Fold this protein.
Amino acid sequence: MASPHPPLLLKNGRVIDPVSGTDKRCAILVADGRIAGTGKQFRASSLPAGARTIDLRGKWLCPGFIDMHVHLREPGEEYKETIASGTRAAAAGGFTAVACMPNTRPVNDCATVTALILEQARHAPARVYPVGAISQGSRGEALAEYGELKKAGAVAVSDDGRPVTNGQLMRRALEYAGNFGLRIISHAEDLGLSGVGVMNEGDLSTRLGLRGIPRPAEDIMVYRDISLACYTRRPIHIAHVSTKETVALIRWAKANGCQVTAETAPHYFTLTEEAIGKYNTLAKMNPPLRTLEDVAAIKAGLADGTIDAIASDHAPHSPLEKEVEFDLAANGIIGLETAVPLALELVRAGVLTEARLVELFSVNPARILGVEGGTLAEGARADLTVIDPARKFVYTRDMVVSRSANTPFLGQTFHGKAVLTIVDGMITHSEL
C-alpha cells in the first residue's frame, strides 16, 4: 500500500512513542507511506517537494491505534455494518487498523471468506486484519484449517461470540494454531453456568426479575484456558475481561510464566450493571456489565500491566435487535468512536499515563497480533493517531459514523478525542 499522497510534516505535536521512550514536542516527516524523519528541526528548503505542513500544537502524536476486537458484520449482516462503514467509524475514532471477528454469515472459517473480507477492505480507510474461526462454523466440533487461514491473511483465530466448550478441542487448537504462529483469542464462557442469563447475577438481577449470569461462568473458563496454555506452552489471549476474579487469574498466570495476554473493553471500566436501569437494552452485552468492584479491578489491571490492551468489542445491531424485550435483545454495543474518549478519562483520573494509553491501544495490540505497528521509529509504517486531549464534545446521534447506533453513551459529554488519523501516510479522517 505505497502512499501516492504528498509528504506530510507534522510539527509541534507531543510525540509519544513508548517503544523508544520518546515523550516530547518535536516534528515528524512522513513520505512514501513511511516515517522519513523524527525529532529534527526541518527547514522548508529541506522538505520534499509538495510537502504539506500540519501544526499539531497542543495535540498528542502517537503510533497508529489498533482495535483488536471488532465485529464488521460483513459478509451476511450488512444492514448492521459493512466493512466500508465500520472502517470509516474506526478512522473517525482514531484507529488505523482493526481486527475483525469471524462470526459473520458465513463464519470466517476458510480462505474464501478471509479473502472476501480482505478484498472488500482493499480501499478502506483503516487496515483490516481478519480473525479466522477456531472451529468449523464456530460449532466447537472440528478444527478449522489454520494453515489455509494463515496463508489467506488471518492474524489470529477465535470462536468469539461462542466459547470452545470441549477442553480437548481447545488443547488441540492451541497446539495447531501455535504451529502457524496464530494466537488463540478465547471467548471465556461456561454455557452451563451462563445458560439463558441476560445480565450479571446479583441483587439487581433479582429485583429486575431478569435471569442472571454468575461471575464464575467467565472465571472458570479463563482458568481452563490458562491451564491449557501453560500445559501446551502456547500463547493465549483472553477477550473482553469483565470480572475481578479473571483479572486476578491473569495476574497469577503471568507471574508464573504462562504466555497469556488479555484485553478489556471501555464499557467494562466505565459502566456497571446499574446502567441497565429500567431494562435499557443498550446496556445489554456478553459478558454482562458487572459491579463497581469489578470496574476497580479492571482499572488496576490496566494500570499494572495485567491487562494488555483496550479493544472496543464494537458490536453493531439495528433497532430490530435492540428495540425489543430485554430477554430477547441482542448483546453488544458499538464502540469504535467512543473507545478513545472513554479511555482518556482514565488518563485524566490518573489511572493511566499517556504512554500507558498508547501501549494499550497501539504497541501491545500490534505485538499480540504480530502485525506491523506500535512505533514511530524512522522507517516505520506511517500509521498515526493524533489526539486532542482538550477537545470537548457531546456524542450525538448525528455524529455516529457507524451504520448502527446501539450505544448507551449517546448524549454524553467527552473531554478528549482523536482528531487526525493517518494510514500509510494518507489522511483518512481529520477534524483539524
